[in-house]
UniProtKB/TrEMBL annotation:
Coiled coil: none annotated. This is Alkaline ceramidase. Ca(2+) binds at residues 13, 16, 18, 27. Belongs to the alkaline ceramidase family. PANTHER family: ALKALINE CERAMIDASE, ALKALINE PHYTOCERAMIDASE FAMILY PROTEIN, EXPRESSED. Pfam families: Ceramidase. One of its GO terms (cellular component) is membrane. GO terms for molecular function: hydrolase activity. It is found in: Membrane. Zn(2+) binds at residues 75, 201, 205. The chain crosses the membrane at residues 35-53, 59-78, 90-108, 120-146, 166-183, 203-222. Keywords: Calcium, Hydrolase, Membrane, Metal-binding, Transmembrane, Transmembrane helix, Zinc. It comes from Riccia fluitans.
Length: 251
């Protein structure tokens, strides 16, 4: 079915029926489910700026906003060009995570960001030219795996119980979301026979938004500890964690 945006040209078509709810949103639930990611990233950005964290963390939250907007464009239009506006920023975000995770111990400070920017630019050009499918997915998984050892190192060196709990929340949300993504992707024929579509891909968006927020907040806490800022975890409404610097910065 073709809606307002015309025929589907994207190489990925999720299990949600196209243009079932609105002619302006090819996949309605997959479109609106990006809103939590954008809102959480805005909250994280305001907290990051207010607490005086390094610009890298502001860029992390801004990247999440870009991903959310790109995903909205993709799932609303189901066009291949907009699909790239979803997929390419995901790769850029992982490159940014690599920088945030590894740069504190990297002695040649200018080489890492220079290489990552060049790599990210080259990937974006190649993705636009060659229309990666499986290669994109394998590449993204590879970048995620590069981040895992360093994330685990931060976790084992953090003794604060609330921070470790935050790490658990990150793992649970990203793992649950990944499972729902796989189910929606590989069991669509069975899902389509159900009376009600559970919208696994939409829940992946929601859980990805929370996992990204939890992961960014965890990294901010660890970085504040490295800098001797005496951080504490506080909660918005008793639920949403953020890092509070409780004494003057001396570094």
């Amino acid at each position: 079915m073709a809606g307002y945006w015309g025929p589907v040209t994207a190489s990925v078509d999720c299990c949600e029926r196209n243009y079932e709810i609105s002619q302006y949103a090819g996949e309605f639930f997959n479109t609106i489910s990006n809103v939590p990611m954008i809102l959480l990233a805005l909250i994280g950005l305001c907290s990051t700026i207010g607490q005086g964290f390094e610009k890298r963390f502001s860029v992390l939250h801004l990247s999440s906003i870009v991903i959310g907007i790109g995903s909205i464009l993709f799932h609303a239009t189901l066009k291949y060009r907009q699909q790239q506006s979803d997929e390419t920023p995901m790769v850029w975000l992982m490159l940014l995570y690599i920088y945030v995770l590894y740069s504190p111990d990297w002695h040649y400070r200018s080489t890492m960001p220079t290489f990552l920017v060049m790599y990210g630019t080259a990937y974006a050009i190649c993705h636009a030219l060659f229309h990666f499918g499986l290669v994109y997915q394998l590449h993204f998984i590879f970048l995620c795996l590069l981040c895992l050892p360093r994330m685990y190192k931060y976790y084992i060196y953090t003794t604060e119980v609330p921070a470790r709990r935050l790490g658990h929340m990150y793992v649970i949300s990203i793992t649950s979301g990944g499972i729902l993504w796989l189910v929606d992707r590989n069991l669509c024929s069975r899902i389509s026979s159900l009376p009600l579509n559970p919208q696994g891909h939409a829940w992946w968006h929601v859980l990805l938004g929370f996992s990204t927020y939890f992961g960014n907040t965890f990294l901010q806490f660890c970085r504040a500890q490295q800098l001797g800022w005496n951080p504490e975890l506080r909660y918005v409404g008793g639920l949403l964690p953020y890092v509070k610097i409780v004494k003057s910065k001396t570094h």
